[in-house]
Design brief:
- With 623 residues, this protein is α/β, with parallel strands linked by helices.
- It is 33% helix and 15% strand.
- Strands 2-1-3-4-5-6 form a six-stranded mixed beta sheet.
- Helix 9 runs parallel beside helix 10, helix 14 runs parallel beside helix 15 and helix 15 crosses helix 16.
- The longest helix has 19 residues.
- The protein starts with 7 loop residues before the first helix and ends in an 11-residue tail after the last strand.
Length: 623
């Protein structure tokens, strides 16, 4: 390992110096002088969060399999180090070699959530790389963004050279090879590289498109500047999950990460079709990894990390068709004494509860349900496919199995929501408590605790609710108060707990989720005035944000609070995710006008047979 970029004196001043020293277990070590491309993989949040991100680990493994590429990591320095680096002019460095990332060929930034946008600028600023794309020279790294937020990259488009739309296993090799070939041929220029990169499937080059606006502020058109630049950028999808790279020797952090465990991805996509869920739409169709491969991965990853927990990763683990066989293998043949199995995203049924009773400490664990809405009417509107009987029966089986703690997740502010729907949230929680107290006292496991949590609904691109209005902070809090007051009226209110998300953050998240390029200047000014780590309540300064938005003429009424007409050009319309816009329009009308509920069942594409919910993509182009 090279000499640390930070002196011992500096490290001793930091809250958690191990965030910045690298050399973790399973870290890749290469000779930088023997590779053609140096790639800094960046997660724009603190080390503990970034080290828990599976996507970074997959790309780290995939890139480093290439002999000509050295992929290293960088995370957002915490404010204590940020201050020192600015004062002492220390350039941001990669963990593996401790070299400044301004000398690398690429800086790849994963955009996992909208409230990290100012941290993108923190990374570039500390790295001493020009913040605006237009100001970079041929000597600067290519700034490449990927991840869920690139399904509307427009608010940060002026800071990016490239955006990758879709799953990284498909087009990155072509992009890196193009760069290498141009460098070797001696004809590399930033402008020419970006022009050629735009022709690679899934690669979006914002500077090669011109956006024009109507008098009312809506988008008139988004037009390629050159004939060879595609009008639509098509999302890239890994068809065969067994063929993708996977980190069987994942990095093990020195600092305890948010998810300090082996993560086993069992499938991508979801068959459920919830109308609010972006992930369920853009990761279509549902694709599974084979059971034999998962068995191999599980053993190798536990052996190579020493972790004492393995977690199954997917949007809906219960829908994995070989889940019983996989769980039995993990229990009987893979996970020895002291190794726990974490099973998120399960639908609570008899099989799931039986499995959880085998792998979890019943006395310490709680079960999680996500009804999303309190009333059956509103669950039908969002196409949740979960009835009150499903919830009460699942809770009843859990209570009889020894559980006494249940967490319930809901959203407030969903389209068509009424006061009756709000009151239904604590009423449902009370019915669950009633179900617990129906068990004879001598068979209960103490008192029950039902915890309700509500987030505030944020409309996301590429969902049937992408046109929906949001509410002002005061209205969200009024709705939370209705839930809280109704809870106090319930017979079992002493067994109920309630907490809700911050409304200020929700409104800003909604602004960034559906914003356009005109937000870039406000994001820049917010960073210049000290806004960072906006996803952290201790650092989020809502008053400063509102001042900056007003100064820049950014209207929340326009971007957040209005319902958008179905014929409006949306900032993300240039992206083809494989789901037809007509499908989203139809589902919006069904939910909000016709009140027709789409049956929530597993369907197959009539074209290629892939498991998907209605409106999903066809790999063969037949539907």
């Amino acid at each position: 390992m090279n000499k640390l970029a930070l002196s011992d004196d500096i490290l001793m001043q930091l809250d958690k110096p191990a965030r910045y020293i690298g050399n973790e277990l399973n870290m890749v070590k290469k000779d930088p002088s023997k590779v053609d491309i140096r790639f800094a993989m960046c997660f724009p949040d603190v080390y503990e969060i970034g080290m828990s991100h599976l996507g970074i680990q997959i790309l780290y493994e995939m890139f480093n399999r290439r002999d000509d590429v050295y992929c290293e990591r960088v995370y957002s320095p915490w404010p204590d180090l940020h201050k020192i680096m600015k004062e002492e002019d220390i350039p941001l460095f990669a963990l593996e070699t401790q070299d400044p990332i301004k000398d690398f060929d690429f800086v790849g930034i994963t955009l996992q959530y909208e409230m990290c946008y100012t941290n993108i600028l923190q990374i570039l600023d500390l790295a001493q790389i020009p913040l605006w794309q237009k100001d970079r020279s041929d000597q600067d790294p290519i700034i490449l963004c990927g991840g869920p937020c690139t399904y509307n990259p427009e608010p940060i488009a002026d800071f990016c050279d490239l955006c990758y739309i879709g799953e990284g296993e498909i087009s990155y090799d072509a992009l890196l090879s193009l760069y290498k070939d141009m460098k070797h041929a001696g004809n590399y220029t930033r402008a020419e590289f970006l022009r050629k990169a735009a022709q690679i499937p899934g690669i979006y080059v914002p500077s090669l498109y011109e956006v024009t606006y109507q008098e009312d502020g809506t988008i008139a058109a988004m037009t390629p500047r050159f004939a060879d630049v595609p009008e639509k950028v098509k999302r890239q999808v890994l068809v065969n999950m067994d063929e993708g790279a996977y980190p069987t020797k994942p990095l093990v952090p020195f600092v305890r990460a948010t998810q300090d465990r082996v993560v086993l991805e069992i499938q991508r996509g979801c068959i459920r079709g919830c109308r609010f869920c972006q992930a369920g739409m853009v990761y279509r169709p549902n694709r599974e990894k084979s059971l034999d491969l998962l068995k191999t991965y599980a053993k190798e990853m536990l052996d190579s990390t020493g972790h004492e927990e393995i977690s199954l990763s997917s949007l809906s683990s219960s829908d994995y068709t070989q889940l019983p066989e996989l769980i039995n293998f993990l229990i009987d043949d893979c996970c020895g004494d002291g190794v726990n199995i974490s099973l998120p995203s399960l639908r609570i049924d008899a099989f799931s509860l039986d499995v959880m009773s085998k792998v979890q400490d019943v006395r310490k664990s709680s079960l999680t349900f996500a009804p999303e809405a309190g009333s059956q009417r509103l669950r039908n509107v969002i196409n949740k496919g979960l009835t009150k009987d499903d919830i009460l029966n699942g809770a009843g089986m859990a209570f009889e199995g020894g559980w006494q703690k249940v967490k319930l997740y809901f959203m407030l502010g969903l389209p068509t929501e009424t006061e009756e729907d709000m009151r239904a949230i604590p009423e449902l929680a009370n019915e669950i408590a009633v179900r617990y107290y129906e068990i004879p006292k001598d068979k209960r496991n103490g008192k029950c605790q039902i915890t309700m949590s509500t987030s505030f609904f944020v409309p996301k691109p590429f969902t049937p609710f992408q046109w929906a209005p949001m509410y002002e902070k005061g209205e969200y809090l009024r709705r939370a108060k209705i839930v809280n007051d109704t809870m106090k009226e319930q017979l079992n209110h002493k067994s109920l707990r309630y907490n809700w998300h911050e409304a200020d953050v929700t409104v800003l998240e909604g602004l960034f989720a559906r914003g356009d390029r005109r937000l870039a200047k406000a994001i820049y000014e917010a960073y210049e005035e000290g806004c960072m780590f906006d996803a952290w309540s201790d650092y989020f300064d809502v008053d400063k944000w509102h001042e900056i938005l007003e100064r820049n003429g950014i209207s929340l009424d326009f971007y957040v609070y209005r319902q958008r007409p179905l014929d409006e050009v949306l900032p993300w319309d240039f992206i083809d995710v494989g789901v037809r816009k007509e499908f989203f329009v139809r589902e919006w009308k069904r939910a909000t006008i016709d009140q027709v509920v789409t049956p929530n069942c597993k369907m197959q594409c009539s074209g290629c047979g892939a498991a998907s919910f209605g409106g999903g993509i066809c790999f063969e182009g037949k539907n």
